[in-house]
Amino acid sequence: MPVKTLDLSSEVKFKTSRSGGAGGQHVNKVSTKVELQFNIQKSEFLSAAQKSTLLRRLENRINKIGILRVVVDSERFQIRNERIALERLHELVQEALKPIKKRVPTKPTRSSLKRRLKTKKLISLKKQRRRATFDKDD
Fold first, then answer.
1. How high is the pLDDT of residue 106?
2. CA distance 61 to 73
3. pLDDT tens for each residue of 37-58
4. 14: number of Cβ within 10 Å
């Protein structure tokens, strides 16, 4: 089920903390690292089918309580990190809710079959020649 542009921003919680990396003294004073938390089960925007799909496909990113976490500390400003975290959440949800295309099995082409048989024959001949020379030495 494709998802319309969801405004999940009302259902997320942000936690901030101090981030390492570039920034000098600024890093030691300001909490720029952002952790976005989204509880899929309590979402009002998602249908039951969408929730179960998300829980199944994003299970490695969801903790035991059922909260999806996105952590961003790439920027030096908290607001930018919040925006990036929201964008990543939207991307994750959109990607997880895309229907999986079923693979349509195809037959190998005639030329690919000929090519495969030709290489098999060459390898077989190479091994036969080895065997012949090995037998002569004994």
1. 93
2. 17
3. 999 888 888 899 999 999 999 9
4. 14
